[in-house]
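This part of the workshop introduces the protein records we will be handling. A record pairs a protein's sequence with a compact description of its fold. As an example, a complete record with its sequence and its structure tokens follows.

_____
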Amino acid sequence: MNGQTRDYLPAGPTVLAFHRSSAFVRGLMGPIGAGKSVAAAMEILRRAQMQAPGPDGVRRSRWAIIRNSYPELKTTTLKTWGDWCPPEFGKLTFDSPIRHHIKTGELDVEVLFLALDRDEDARKLLSLELTGAWINEAREIPKGIVDTLTGRVGRYPSKVQGGATWSGILMDTNPPDSESWWYKLAEEETPEGWSFFKQPSGLSPEAENIANLPTGYYERLLGGKDEDWIRVYVHGDYGYVTEGKPVFPMWRDSVHVAPIEPVENLALMIGVDFGLTPAAVIGQKLADGRWLILDEIIADNVGITRFGETLASYLRQHYPHHDIAAGWGDPAGNQRAQTDERTALGILKEVTGWCWKSAPSNDITMRLEVVKGALNRMVDGRPGFALSSKCSTLRKGFSGGYHYKAVRTARGNQYHEVPAKNAHSHPHDALQYLQLGGGEADVVMNRVKRRDPNQRARIARDVDYPMFGDRESFGTRMARDVDYNPFSG
């Protein structure tokens, strides 16, 4: 590689076992600073050099390195890769996707860096032919990405060129919570051909990568941290940790969570988020303005038709005596596909038979405002927003899983302007569409009008929804459409 070399020693026995394994899917989990990412990067380079040469004597391989979003890919994953395989080792181009092409002597290695924070990015996987892939910080990635990758690796080099000597998926992560897909596959039901490796606590005598860390590294981490944080990041055990800046700081679990039941004779409303991990949130809005969020349905790696069928079946089973007033989704769901010109919302209508509409807006500020308004609302001494204890993913999202990522700058920590994409963002997007469509858009617009009439006009002009004008009020429409009198006691 242009005469440059890098000396590497595995961080410890667990990492060594990770390297020695030839499992089709390998997962490495441990505390921060334990050398997980470096191990995965070096395993790519090691396997690339172990690839049998083709008929022309060239050892070809192609790899995808995946992170959940572009900022993390660029600032962490790409940096780790560059520390051990700098641009001087081959041509690094910042196209879409970022590509590092190492071509020297008998070695020809292509490395593609993919951020899967958008549906269109994820769809790029379907056209890739790879030798293998590395998923960095896998707890942030939907299981559907892993499922898709299993069908894309082992496709390069082709049989004509000799085929892949080894192919598969490498994953590393800090510990997720015990409800994650990682936990279920690593601890409960590990598929054949998969292997998981768990590094010891950073405070144990068997701690790994200590030689490459500052003296007393893990002991210093203990200061000012709560038990959950220490359990995950120091001891490397499963747990739930609030990271970044919570999107909804007004959330109070003791106030907003309750074992609620649906109100009889009041129709249900639904919000849906499309994409790789489609999610639906089911709720009711009472006449006094209070919201009851009854249920969440989250799928993984399913198409819109199958998701609609699942949603309809679930509601028939669990809410058989309730009508469906309407459902709202991302306005992008009204864009026609290039293949058959059908829209996601149109498909949902065909499959479920319900009325589906575009949410009033996809502006993130307005979407968050409708939820904040409901959370801050008190009605006759009762919270204006009540979340069923069944909605575990939404609940964790409110508690900090749905957050703004921190970014280190010269002036200290700053935060992204939009919430991070993760497992909690999908149902929260669905919740926002539900509340926008269910009347909260009018509440926000009236509040904006009092502050700035010009801003209200601008927002109304930019969204495909008649927020005011010749339209019935939400209460009037609900009174007409469902067997429920919002003005009764």
